[in-house]
Amino acid sequence: MTALGIMGSPRIRSNTDILLDEALRGAQTEGAVTEKLLVGKMNIAPCKEYYGCLRDGNCVIRDDMDLVYPKLLSADVVIVASPIFFYGLTAQVKALIDRGQALWARKYVLKQAPPNSTRKGAFIGVGATRGKNLFEGSALTLKYFFSAIGVSYAGEVLVRGVDEKGEIRKHPEALAEAFELGKRLVRDS
Asked: What is the pLDDT of residues 28-63, one digit of tens each?
């Protein structure tokens, strides 16, 4: 059992990073081997619509996505964590998601079945504001992304009103919720 954490914040040890670590720690207590990708430290170009992926399901751009694709396809659990910038995911994690077009092409154009159907995914989102619709667009993006890679959207931890670096530590209920999310995702996969 493997759990892949995709940390989309450009700020290391951010509130998002702390929550993702808690979720991965929860997954480990259920026996999962975990890995965390720091997307902000990776070289991932945006999708350039070359459409090479429509031929064989592989992106023609050579960069760190070459390392990410196999991880996305083999992980039993995928957790995407991102702060919210202007009611959306960060550019760093959005580039990774957009490059998932190659896996979308495999599934929908080339009719190649994704890996096993019990794989689970979740979203951890942190926003400074308290807007009612703060996470709606990001959650919808992740639901479509997960569908393209053969993962079912199975949970979320969404925290409003937290911005200062490390401030999430003052919210033990959010930390506990992230930990439980990681445990549940592994148990249910």
From this structure: 999 999 999 999 999 999 999 999 999 999 999 999
- Who's near 188: CB < 8 A, 6+ residues apart? 120, 154
Kindly report the CATH number that applies to the domain delimited by 2-188: 3.40.50.360
161 within 8 A of 173, measured Cβ to Cβ: no
β-strands 77-83, 2-7 pairing = parallel
Name the pTM for this structure: 0.96
Do 103 and 62 meet the contact criterion of CB atoms below 8 Å apart?
A: no
Domain ranges for the chain, please list them: 2-188
Per residue, the 3-state secondary structure of the chain, as one string, reads: CEEEEEECCCCCCCHHHHHHHHHHHHHHHCCCEEEEEEHHHCCCCCCCCCCCHHHHCCCCCCCCHHHHHHHHHHCCEEEEEEECECCECCHHHHHHHHHCHHHHHHHHHCCCCCCCCCCEEEEEEEECCCCCCCCHHHHHHHHHHHHHHCCEEEEEEEEECCCCCCHHHHCHHHHHHHHHHHHHHHHHC
91-99 and 136-149 helices, crossing angle to 10°: 30
How many angstroms separate the CA atoms of 5 and 121, rounded? 10
